[in-house]
Design brief:
single chain, alpha+beta, 28% helix
Length: 316
């Protein structure tokens, strides 16, 4: 449950903490900005306060955490006092891995099996071939891609586990039939450690940094570009066309590890891409890149991906 904006503003006023509601360093996704108390020379309100219960500093991504931590540091109040002050509005901490249903460990069910060139999984093997992957075994091994043909809920779907710090937090299933009513199906938030739309796919790879980070919309977009580009390029997807607060928070912690960030969505999603760029307005080295002759990144063949890589490297 988000904290009400007026409750935060009232707390800041009562404790004589200077804040600004608008300014060049204040994203439209935050309640307000204050001077970061963890930076020695911040006079530009670089620390953003999010109503979801966390703070982040645009100048130094390491300065982040729960508002409990921030407000206790600024005022000396105990956590018990802060919980009482904010009552039901302030009931959670914001970490990258956080669950609202107390699930601590998630395991893949036994009916999710590896995709191999054998009769029982040939349908899925051929589907990946049809999507332009010439090395299905390498692809499956790298991203631990699975399939399901024995469970009603996930039947005839390719399964993409989502990892954070080596831990499975959720998964996404993609139907192999184009006639499926629901092409993509996410594990429910209630059964996940972290819901899909709060994750960045390929997280354990993108935190390593590189020359270029590419943000795409779908998981097939991400694995197609990530698998066929060089190691200096890392690729993620946000599973939809709009960022969640936690995805923004995560990107804030790693964007300085890259020389350039490109948003590459579907060809007809230019306005949505601009919206994502606006939501990431604290990132200066970010650019929207439009594909010319294909609908989305997943449709690119290997030769076109290599050409794209050359273009992107030329923009660093």
């Amino acid at each position: 449950m988000p904290i009400r904006d007026e409750k935060i503003i009232t707390f800041l006023k009562e404790n004589n903490i200077d804040f600004a509601l608008r300014g060049k360093n204040i994203s439209n996704r935050v309640v307000c900005g204050i001077n970061c108390p963890f930076c020695e020379d911040d006079y530009g309100h670089h620390l953003g306060i999010f109503r979801e219960g966390f703070f982040t500093c645009w100048k130094n991504p390491e300065h982040r955490g729960s508002l409990f931590k921030l407000f206790s540091f600024l005022t000396g109040y105990s956590f018990d006092y802060l919980k009482t002050y904010f009552e039901d509005d302030f009931d959670r901490f914001a970490d990258i891995i956080e669950t609202e249903n107390n699930i601590k460990k998630l395991t893949l069910p036994e009916y999710f099996v590896k995709i191999e060139k054998r009769p029982s999984t040939m349908l899925f093997y051929n589907y990946l071939k049809s999507r332009g992957f010439d090395d299905v075994k390498g692809l499956v091994d790298r991203y631990n891609i699975l399939c399901c043909f024995k469970n009603e809920e996930w039947n005839n779907r390719i399964i993409f586990p989502v990892y954070i710090n080596g831990q499975i937090v959720t998964w996404v299933g993609r139907a192999v039939s184009n006639n499926a009513k629901l092409r993509y199906k996410n594990l429910s938030a209630e059964k996940s450690i972290l819901k899909t739309t709060d994750c960045l796919y390929n997280y354990d790879t993108i935190i390593q940094g590189g020359d270029i980070l590419i943000i795409t919309e779908g998981v097939f977009d991400a694995i197609k570009l990530d698998y066929y580009t060089s190691e200096n390029i890392k690729v993620t997807c946000i599973f939809t066309s709009r960022l969640s607060e936690k995805q923004i928070h995560t990107l804030l912690t790693l964007y300085k590890k890259y020389g350039k960030i490109f948003i590459i969505l579907d060809k007809d999603a230019y306005i949505k891409a601009l919206g994502i760029k606006d939501e990431l307005s604290f990132i200066k080295n970010i650019e929207v890149f439009i594909l010319e002759d294909v609908k989305d990144p997943a449709e690119l063949n290997i030769a076109k991906i290599k050409k794209l890589e050359e273009e992107l490297n030329g923009k660093i």
